[in-house]
Amino acid sequence: SIIGHKACIPNTLISSGTMSKSIDPPVEQINAFGDHGPLRRIIAEDPEWSLALVPPLSILCLQNIVTNFEGMLFKELLPAHKEYVLGRLPPSLPLHVTANLISDPGYWRRCCVQRWNPCDVSQYGHSWKRMFFEKHLENLLELFIPDVTPPQSILELVPLCRDYVLRLDVSQLLPPIKEPGNPGRESDVGPSMDHFDFGLLLDQLSRLEELRLVYRVRGCGMNFEWNLFEFTLRDCEALARALKSCHTLKVIRMLCQSKVEDERCRILALHLLDHPSLLELDLSHNLIGDRGARAIAKLLSRSRLEGLDLYDNEVAGPGGRAIAHALSRSATLRSLNLRLNRLGDEGGRAVGQALLTNRTLRRLHLGANEMGEASAAVLAQVLVQNDTLTSINLSCNSLGADGGKILEDAMSHNNAVTEFDVRLTEVGEGSEAFIGQRVRSNQGRVREQIVFIDPTNMIDRVADQC
Amino acid sequence: MSGDVKKPVEVVVSSSEAEMHQERTDAHRLRGAARSTAKERGQRGEDSNEDMVIKDAGRPSEQRAEQSERMLVNLLSEGTQLITNIQVAADAKESQRRTELREGRRLQVEKLECEARSSMEKFEEITRGWSQAKAKVIPQELHQALGRQLQLCAQVLEDKSKLINDLQQELKARDERYVKELKRQAEEVDLMIERMEEQVKTLTRTNREELDHIEKAYEEERKVLLTGNRQEWEQHVKQRSTTELENMMERRRKVEEYEAMLEQLRLAEIDDYNVIREKLETDVQTTQLWKQQQKATAQLNQEKQEFNIHVLMHREKDSMIIQSKLKRKINRLQDVLNSLKANRVQAAKVGHGQCDDYTRTVQQYTLMQKKIKHFEAVDSERFAEVWKMKEEEVRELAERVLDIDRLLHEQQLGLVWERPTVPPELSPSPPRGPATADSAVGPSSRAAGVRSAGAYGEACSDGASSATGDSAGGAAGEGGRGRVSADTVKKLLQLLCDEAGFLIESKLLTLMSSLDKDHQSLIKLDSIFSSLGVESKDDVYRLAEFFSNYQQRPTHQADAEGFSTSSTFDLLHPDEVLAALKAFTAQYRRPRERSAPQHHSSTLTGAPEGPDQAAFWESLANVLPESKLKLWTALDSALEKYHAVLTERSQLFRDTQDLKRQNSELRMLLHQSLNAKVNTELVIPPDRLMKMAPK
C-alpha cells in the first residue's frame, strides 16, 4: 500500500515540475534517477526519501557546514543539529580540527572502520576515540624512520592525543637507513638515533598506562639482517630514561624477542627503581642471565611490582637465588613466571624457601627449569605451609617418581591450590592423578566459598575464566 | 545533466551502504548484547543452580544441573590440558634442545680448542722450520725443508679446511633442523589451533547439549509436578463430589424420615382431637341447661328484691325525719356544753392564778428569811471587826496622847508625870445566841406546824435518824435534842395523843373515825400541837425535854444524868401530863410573845448595851483631862516663840560663816598676786606700789 501511495504521488508532482522549473532538489533527483521517462520506482532503503518536503534552510545550512567543517561554528549549534552534522562528517577531516572537538563515538567509529577493518573496540575500553588515537600513534611510531621522518610529525600529534592514549602497542621499530655502499662502517658518524627515541614522547603522554615494545622489523623476508633486531645500548639508555620520566606507567610489556642482555637489563632496572606506579614487568623471550636477574631482584625489592614475567630467558641458579631472596621480602608480588629458564635445583630450592615466608604470591610458573627431586621436596613443604599460593606450574622438570610421591603427600594437606601442572615431570601416573583430583576438589570448594561469600564476585570470576 | 544524474545515485548508494553498515554494526552489537546476556543468563543460571544445589540437592533437575556442570568443568579442563599439552611438550623439547645445544657447543668448543692447540703446535713447528730453513744454505736442504714446510702447511690447511667443512656441515645440519623445527612448530601451532577450534566446538556442543539436558530435566520435573498436582487436584475434586453426593443422600433420607414422622403424628392427633371435641360438646349442653335454671331463680330473686327495696325506702324516710330532730337537739346541747366549758375555764383560770400567787409569796417569804439570817450574821461579824479595829485605834491614840503628855511633863516641864487611869478592856460582845434563837423561833406560821407534823411522821417511821439529823440551829434545841432520844419522843407523842384528846375538836374526831389508827394519831397530834403552839421540830424536842425535866423536878434529883432519864421517863404518869402541859405553855408562851418585838428592835438599833459602851468610849476620849489640855496650848505658844528665836540665830551663824570664808579666799588671792614672777619683771612691781600706797 505504501508503494502504491507513493507511486501515485509522483504523477502529480511531475505535472507541477513541468510547470515551474525551480523545483526542490529531491524531486528533481527522483526525476533524474532513471533516464527512461517518469519514474515509478523508488529506493525503499533510503530512509530520508521524501517527496513532499522541500528541505528546510537549516538543513541546507547544516549540509554546508558539513562540507566546510570548522570548529568554532560547530560549537554553537543546537544539539539536534550537532547530531545531524556529526552523522554526516567525513572521516578524512584533519585531526587538529576534530581531536578535541568531537567526542561522538559514531564519528570516531567511522574513522576507525575506514582505516582499520575489522576493529575490536572492546580491547580499548569500548572507546572508539581512544582506539583511533592509539592506533594512529602506533602506526606513526612503527613507520618512523630515524633521520628521515621528522620527529615533529609525531610530536605535533601529542597535544591532540595525550588525553586519549592509555596504551601503546608498538609491534615494530625501524632502524635507520644505511647506505648500501658501506654497511656498518659509519658507526662513528652514524645516525642520530638507532631507533625512535621514546624520551621525546613518553613524558608528554599524561595518561599512558601500558607500553608494549618490540625492537624488530616485521615482514623483513629475505632482507633479513641481524641489526634489524637489535636493541642497542643507546636505545636502551634512551628508553630507560623515557620510562623513568613517565610516572603513570603501570605495565611494561616490552622487548619480546629484542635480545635484551644482562647489561641492558641492568640499565633498565636501574632506571626503574622506585618508579611510582609500575605494577607489571614483562621481559619474556630475551637473553637475561644471572646478572640481569640480580638487577631485576633489586628492582623487585624496591618497587611495588605485582607481576613479573621472565619467560624464556637464561636465568640460572644464582639469578634464581637473587630473585627468590627478593621474593621472600616482597609484599606485593602476586605473579611470578620463570618458565623456560635454567634455574636448576639451586634456584628451585631458593624459590621454595622464599615461598615459606612469602604470603602474597598467588601464581608461580617454574615450568621447564631443569629442576629435580630436591626442589620437589622444598616445594612440597611450601604446599603444606603456604595457603595463599593458588596456582603452581612445575611442568617439564625431571622431578622423578619420588618427588611425585612427596608432592602427593603435600597436596593431601593443601586446600588452596586450584591449579597444579605436573605434566612431563616423570612423577608417575598415580601421583599425577591424585594431584589432579585434589586440585579439582579445591576448585569446587573455592567456588562454593565464592558463592557463599559474594555472588557478584563469583560472576566476575566466571567472566574472567570465560 | 549527467552530473545531476550521477549525484543522486551516489548519494543513495552511500546512504544505503551506510545504512547497511549501520545495520551490520547494529546486528553485531545486538549479537554481542545477546551473547553477553546469554552469558549472564548462563552465569545467573549457573549461579541459581548452585544456589539451589546448596539449598536443596534433592531435586533431580538440580542434580542434573550439578552433574552437567561438573562434566563441563571436567571437559573444559581436559580440553585445556589437551591444548596445553602441545605447549608443554614444545617447552620440554625446547629445553631439551637447549641442553643438547649447550652440550654440543661445549663439545664443539673443546674440539675447537683442541684443534687450535694442535694447529698451534703445527704452526710453531712451521715457524721453527722457518728458522731452521734460514740456517740452511744448501739449496737441496732448503728445498727439502721448504717441502717439509709446505707439507706441514698443507697439513694445517687440510686440518683447518676439514674443520671448516665440519662446521659448515654442522651449520647446514642446524639449518635443516631449524627449518624442520619451524615446520614442526608450524604444524604444532596448526594442531593447536585445530584443537582449540575443536575444543570450542565440542564445548559449545556439549554446553548446548547440557543445556538441553537441564532444560529437559526441568521440563520433566515440571511435568511430573504438574501431573502430580493435577492428580491431586482431581482426587480432591472427586473426593469432594462424592462427599457432596453422600451429604445429599443423607439429607434426602432424613427429609423422608421426618415426613413419615409428621404423618404419624398428625393421625394420632386427629383421634385425640375428635374425642376431646365430643366431650366438650356434651359439656356445653349441660352447662346450657344449668344456665336456664339459674336464669329462672334469678328472675324470682329479682322480684323479691324489688319488694324489699320499696319497704326499705319507706323506712328510710322515717329515719331521716328522726335524724333531723336529733340533730337539732344535739346542736342545742352543744351550745349549752360550750357555754359551760367557757365558764369552767374562766373559773379554773381564776383559781389557778390565786394558788400560784400564794405559793409564790410563801416561797418569797422563806427566801427573804434566809436572806435576813445571812445578812444578820454577816453584819454582826463586820460589826465586831469594826468595833475591834476602832477600839485599837482609839486605844493607840490614847496611848500616844499619854506618851506625849509624859514627854511634855518630864522633858519640857520637868514635872513628875503620873499615869492617868485607862478604862479596862471592855469585851465588846455583840448580841448573839438569844437573838438568833428568837429570830428563828419568831416567825411562826402554819407551814412550820405542818413541818413538825412531817417530822413526827419521819420520827415514827425512821426513829432517831431524822430527829438527830435535823438541825435548825439554836443552843436549846441542840441541848434538847442531845438529851432526848427519838424513842422518848415517840413515846411522848403517843402519850400526848392519848391524854390531850380534849384539845381536839369534837367534829374532827367524828371525821377521823373512818381513818386508820396511824392517820388518826397524826391528825390528832397536828391539832394538839397547833393548839399548844408547837410549830417546829425544835418545839417538839423542847417539849420532850421539858417533860423529862418536869418529871425530874418534883423528885428533886439534882443533876441527874441526862441519858438515864429515858429509862425513868416511863414513870411519868399520865395524870401529870396535863400539869406538865400547863407548865410548858406557861413557860414558853411568854418568851415567845416578848421575843417578837425585841427581835424587831434589835435588828433596828443594833446596840442594846449602848450606855455601857458609850461610857467606855467616853473614858477613852477623855483620857487627857481638861487642865492638861490648857497646859498644852500654853506650852505650844511658848515653844513657837522659842523656835522663831532659834531659827534667827541659825541664820546669823550661817552668814558669819560665809563672810569668814570669803575673807580667807581674798587673802589668798592677794598673796598669789604679790608673789607672782611677773612682778619681778615689771618696772614698778605692785608690792612696791602697795608699800608706797600706804605712804
From TrEMBL, chain A:
It is found in: Cytoplasm, Cytoskeleton. Keywords: Cytoplasm, Cytoskeleton. One of its GO terms (cellular component) is cytoskeleton. This is T-complex-associated-testis-expressed 1. One of its GO terms (biological process) is microtubule-based movement. It comes from the Eukaryota. InterPro entries: DRC5 (IPR052410), Leu-rich_rpt (IPR001611), LRR_dom_sf (IPR032675).
Automatic annotation (TrEMBL), chain B:
Residues 1-67, 419-447, 459-482, 590-611 are annotated as: Disordered. Residues 88-189 form the Dynein regulatory complex protein 1/2 N-terminal domain. Residues 421-433 have a biased composition (Pro residues). Residues 18-29, 37-67 have a biased composition (Basic and acidic residues). Keywords: Cell projection, Cilium, Coiled coil, Flagellum. Residues 615-674 form the Dynein regulatory complex protein 1 C-terminal domain. PANTHER family: DYNEIN REGULATORY COMPLEX PROTEIN 1, NYD-SP28 PROTEIN. Component of the nexin-dynein regulatory complex (N-DRC) a key regulator of ciliary/flagellar motility which maintains the alignment and integrity of the distal axoneme and regulates microtubule sliding in motile axonemes. Plays a critical role in the assembly of N-DRC and also stabilizes the assembly of multiple inner dynein arms and radial spokes. Coassembles with CCDC65/DRC2 to form a central scaffold needed for assembly of the N-DRC and its attachment to the outer doublet microtubules. This is Dynein regulatory complex protein 1. It comes from Gadus morhua (Atlantic cod).
